Amino acid sequence: MITATDPESTRMLDADLFRTVAGYWPTGVAVITTVDADGRPYGLTANAVTSLSIKPLQYLICVDLRATSLPALLESRLFCLNFLADGQEDVAQIFASKKEYKFGEFGWSRLPNALPVIDGNVAHIGCEVVAVHDGGDHKIIVGGVTHIGITGGDPLVYFKGAFHRITQP
Ligand SMILES: Cc1cc2nc3c(=O)[nH]c(=O)nc-3n(C[C@H](O)[C@H](O)[C@H](O)COP(=O)(O)O)c2cc1C
Asked: Is the Cα torsion angle 154, 115, 47, 91 positive or negative in sign?
């Protein structure tokens, strides 16, 4: 067992331990897509994503200050959450990478406001940014929901640093 509560062991409260303990919280896997002012698509894989408010409808995402997608998102103030289906591990890997252009290897379309929607997602949520807060080395971004689409199916799951399926093939 690893514990890091007493002063002697606080030196263990480092980034690796933080990532390990965070990995014990299973999450879905989203691709946050966005566009810049010219409509060029960007996106990143994310699990720091949560529903926030019902009245009004709001979602919350946390984006690393180093993410290439962040300036575009803050410029257009638009993002779409694509909840990935099991079987979309390859899409998750593409959007977790630093590839310059990530939209060439799978099907996708656009919402009327140009936000990219990835084919095969179990659900997607289009948002307009309503608030941006500082959160350490991330930005905490609140989006007002403008669009909801539900395809259904089983979601891709992230747990202990790896992708999992709820239903084993
Ligand atoms: C399962 C998983 C979850 C992730 N969650 C986040 C997240 O919530 N926020 C974030 O900024 N990066 C997250 N990342 C890392 C980004 O996907 C990664 O840094 C990506 O390369 C950023 O792309 P960009 O720089 O092109 O925007 C996650 C990666 C994985 C594999």
From this structure: positive
Residue in the structure block whose two tokens are 């993410």? 67
Which pTM value belongs to this model?
0.94
Among 44, 50, 158, the mutation site with the greatest number of ligand 1 atoms within 8 A of its Cβ is 44
Q: Is 63 in the pocket of ligand 1 (CB under 6 A)?
A: yes
Q: What is the pLDDT of residues 89-136, one digit of tens each?
A: 999 999 999 999 999 999 999 999 999 999 999 999 999 999 999 999
Q: Is 62 in the pocket of ligand 1 (CB under 6 A)?
A: yes
Domain limits of the chain? Answer: 27-165
Q: Which CATH superfamily is domain 27-165 in?
A: Electron Transport, Fmn-binding Protein; Chain A (2.30.110.10)
> Which stretches of 49-98 are assigned E, i.e. beta strand?
49-53, 58-64, 78-83
Between the CA of 134 and the centroid of ligand 1 the distance, in Å, is: 17
